[in-house]
Amino acid sequence: MAPVTELSSSPVDEGAPRSHGVGSRGAAVLVFGSSAAVLVVEIVALRLLAPYLGLTLETSTMVISIALTAIAVGSWLGGRIADQVDPARLLGPSLGMSGAVVALTPAVLRGTAEWAPGLLLLIASLTILVPGALLSAVTPIVTKLRLTSLAETGTVVGRLSGVGTVGAIFGTVFTGFVLVSRLPVSSILIALGTLLVVGSALVEWRTRGWSGTPALTLVVVAGGLATAVAPGGCGTETRYHCAQVVADPDRESGRTLVLDGVRHSYVDISDPTHLEFTYVRAIVSVLDAAFPEGEPLSVGHLGGGGLTIPRYLAATRPGTRSLVSEIDSGIVRIDRDRLGPGPGSGIDVRAEDGRLGLRRLDTGSRDVVVGDAFGGVSVPWHLTTVEAMTDIRRVLNEDGLYVANLIDHGDLAFARAEAATLRQTFEHVHLLGEPTDIGLDPTATPEGGNLVLVASDRTVDLRAIQEALDARQTGWKVTTGDRLTSWIGDAPLLTDDYAPVDQLLQPHSRRSG
Predict the structure, then answer these.
(1) pLDDT tens digits for 443-458?
(2) Is 293 exposed, middle or buried (0-12, 13-18, 19+ CB in 10 A)?
(3) What span, in angstroms and rounded, lies between the C-alpha atoms of 458 and 291?
(4) Is the pTM of this model over 0.70?
(5) Which candidate, 418, 425, 351, 430, places its Cα nearest to that of 394?
(6) Which of 210, 222, 378, 455 could bridge to 426 as Cys pair (CB 3.0-4.6 Å)?
(7) How far apart are CA 192 and CA 106, in angstroms?
């Protein structure tokens, strides 16, 4: 029998790997930075994809899954290759190539969305998977470089694992609370790519004296230039949207607020009574029919957009007080600087979540609550539930109305569920929309789009609402009672405990507006 050779626990065997110029602090910096960078890429990728895929549960799940896959693949392959190749040869290229890919990501994704949308999911996956795997490989590579004795294996591995976790936490918090609120996502990625390439150069110079970094630097520069000319750029990047204000070529004072490539609001800055969108004309038709002409109202608005309805109410019902809850402070600034009414309009806009804003309102303090926070790609689900409707009912007075704009397509599963949820809370519920969408033409296939739900505990004059809809040339009809029951069918109730809104909602093309 051959003799058994003991593994040495002495500081360094003659053939043991050396640290190649990567000291303890340098190793910690590399692991911390690469782990943070992975999370920066993950979070910014969500924001970058939002204009095309929406901020939905599915989008978030996909991005998180791809990032975790990248971490797993990079950690496994990085450790395996580091055992077969001199790890000093791997560290710099891993940082440099990941930096190049990160810097090119904004231009590549926006170009793909514009010119080859069918490939968007594949390209998006690769722009997360490739740099994520390369950066995740850094930790096992650095660990291999630092392991010079079996006696310190636990210490080295444990320390670097802890440092990597702290780096990931830092990357998450710093990106979510600082970077995204202050910088465009393209700038974040280009800056991160630059830092990674610079880090690659320093590591290569320290370990091998390699001078191949200029080529990667050119890639980063090219990424910045490509991003500048790539389609899909934003006029303003807010925390939640790519926002643009587009002038109407056919109406000198007309402005369209475009969020994530979709027309969100239309405002005539000289004539607030000009209402461009059909659903807006439908909402004000309900209000004009339900309340005496010119009577000032106390209104709560969930979602602000371009403040089209608050401006209309201020102009047609002097003395109206509108309190607007708009979660996106960037949109609030656009309203104030480019779209919003001047002082004395009675419109108070607060940068806050709509559900939290509801909680701050006194019981019975509002004549109307207008829900206009639902988009065609994503929906704030917590504003759709029985509990949210109960809070809306609380803040309404006994003659109050809740009027909500919904956007859905296909079989309208989300809209049906929301109607069922409102019926659980309010005594009277009515649905406004195109006849084909609200079940009044059973021979036609619903196309979907905007729908308006009206809910209250008092009766409203449906004939007056229909006359107002006709006067404003909406082409919309009203359905209620048994017809609405048939339209709702077996749609589920939405609750705080169960609200699969992202699964129910069927978005339409972002070009449809």
Answers:
(1) 788 888 999 999 999 9
(2) exposed
(3) 12
(4) yes
(5) 425
(6) 455
(7) 12
